[in-house]
Amino acid sequence: MATQLQREIGNLKKSILTLGALVEDNLRRALTAVERRDEALAAEAVERDFPIDLMEVDVEEDCLKALALYQPVAGDLRFIVTTIKINTTLERIGDLAVNIAERARLLAAMSQPVVAFDMAGMAIKAQRMVSSALDALVHSDGTAARAVLLADDEIDDLDRELTATLNAAAREHPEWLDPLIQLLQISRFIERVADHATSIAEDVIYMAEGEIPRHSVKRAVAEAMGFNGVALPQMKE
User: Fold this and answer.
1) Of 100, 199, 213, 237, which is least surrounded by CB within 10 A?
2) At 168, which CATH number?
3) Exposure on the CB side of residue 120, measured as CA atoms within 13 A
4) Which residues in the chain come in under a pLDDT of 50?
């Protein structure tokens, strides 16, 4: 039974990494379509989401079968639970790649506004976060996963700067409003990609160390206020 479980875990690891590679590749394709204003490449990114969706369902079913058949515990259980969560997160990143590609198709038919901003740099950083989070998964490396968490703040700052720049351009040049709206939406999608990379990194930390890092700051504040292990007061209706 133990040997069969380890074989199944090995297969799950290969599957989640394959899914991750597909998602990374399509995200790169969508962002390149934005940079080049390439309508054909954007259409290709939209089409390539279909096998990602199918694989996400297959991975989830395999995880549920492993839980039912082998009743794993400890590290094996954490791995399968983490795989289920990362599987869903990767599918969401795939959906964001489609959203970006759809905006790229619209931009391809529009005149380009003359605005100085570095969306490509922001996109590269978000892609690196996804890649680094998946590398941390491969090596079950909590330290590398924590580095991904730190990188998210930089993406948030870049998103705010880009949003401010594009909003200012829209006020000054209302004739550019349509393409600027598309760029604003793409910026927000990239920021959400980074958020999902952060979620993957948090799940890797849980898998590797058994620690749930989400809301750690809020937890520390609650403990300092004396709420550690104490039920919080209920709001009156």
Assistant:
1) 237
2) 1.20.58.220
3) 7
4) 217-225, 232, 235-237
